[in-house]
């Protein structure tokens, strides 16, 4: 039972990332009808927002420490972050330590601007083009973005640690009545799952309970009728594109302590996230979230040694096998709507 619960936790962790990225993908497809293959790059940009803020906070000035000497007996030159000079050693060190959570505030305006520029500068010209054209141009954009990141940040992963208080692991099994050390799970992975649940809940509440969200949902169902009512639905859909970009960016920011950011991390998640969207049903927001967690848990169980010994390599293909089975039995996906991506 403890092994099963551990794999469920691992699955919820993976599923959180899949669900957040798939949620943004579905928002874009549901509102604009665009298959955005650059969405994984938005996840990557969010991660590098955290990297950038961490580097900015660690910018240092050389100072002389009169109480310490080097091997020649001269006063020691030390590198002191500017942030510590401005706010003092304790507060400055705390700000640097909390750089990843603080990157949330830094990334939101950045991702909104990136999403707006992407939609107004490129995507809008492909609304009425075939989906194949949309895939090609957004995939090309994703490659351009990742090469830009590679040029400025290098090809190697960049470690970006979580705050000190969230490093280490929680004896989760004790909370459930198991023996000590039966289920040990990293604190930050639990934080990531809770953060993902909060963002997903906030997006659904925004769409369900605000006037703006209700208009957007109406536009997703019947864009022409909403336009005839005198509502500028295109402007609202542009805002939704920025919101979807922000969701992907936030997913990337909080994922940095789990997996050190690198320039190809967006592509790594993109294909799996599209599988999640298709399994959940194109255009279905609840389907995208449900499929994200479902496939995350299945992938986690498939990675168990006992399963891999019985079926070697199953952990690499389980998501695609499940997708084939679901699409053969339910061609529209788990919660897909009639007429979406159908001719």
From TrEMBL:
<feature type="transmembrane region" description="Helical">
    <location>
        <begin position="270"/>
        <end position="298"/>
    </location>
</feature>
<dbReference type="Pfam" id="PF02653">
    <property type="entry name" value="BPD_transp_2"/>
</dbReference>
<dbReference type="InterPro" id="IPR001851">
    <property type="entry name" value="ABC_transp_permease"/>
</dbReference>
<keyword id="KW-1003">Cell membrane</keyword>
<keyword id="KW-0472">Membrane</keyword>
<comment type="similarity">
    <text>Belongs to the binding-protein-dependent transport system permease family. LivHM subfamily.</text>
</comment>
<feature type="transmembrane region" description="Helical">
    <location>
        <begin position="91"/>
        <end position="114"/>
    </location>
</feature>
<dbReference type="GO" id="GO:0006865">
    <property type="term" value="P:amino acid transport"/>
</dbReference>
<feature type="transmembrane region" description="Helical">
    <location>
        <begin position="237"/>
        <end position="258"/>
    </location>
</feature>
<feature type="transmembrane region" description="Helical">
    <location>
        <begin position="42"/>
        <end position="61"/>
    </location>
</feature>
<protein>
    <submittedName>
        <fullName>Branched-chain amino acid ABC transporter permease</fullName>
    </submittedName>
</protein>
<keyword id="KW-0812">Transmembrane</keyword>
<dbReference type="GO" id="GO:0022857">
    <property type="term" value="F:transmembrane transporter activity"/>
</dbReference>
<keyword id="KW-1133">Transmembrane helix</keyword>
<feature type="transmembrane region" description="Helical">
    <location>
        <begin position="310"/>
        <end position="329"/>
    </location>
</feature>
<dbReference type="GO" id="GO:0005886">
    <property type="term" value="C:plasma membrane"/>
</dbReference>
<feature type="transmembrane region" description="Helical">
    <location>
        <begin position="190"/>
        <end position="216"/>
    </location>
</feature>
<keyword id="KW-0813">Transport</keyword>
<dbReference type="InterPro" id="IPR052157">
    <property type="entry name" value="BCAA_transport_permease"/>
</dbReference>
<keyword id="KW-0029">Amino-acid transport</keyword>
<feature type="transmembrane region" description="Helical">
    <location>
        <begin position="15"/>
        <end position="35"/>
    </location>
</feature>
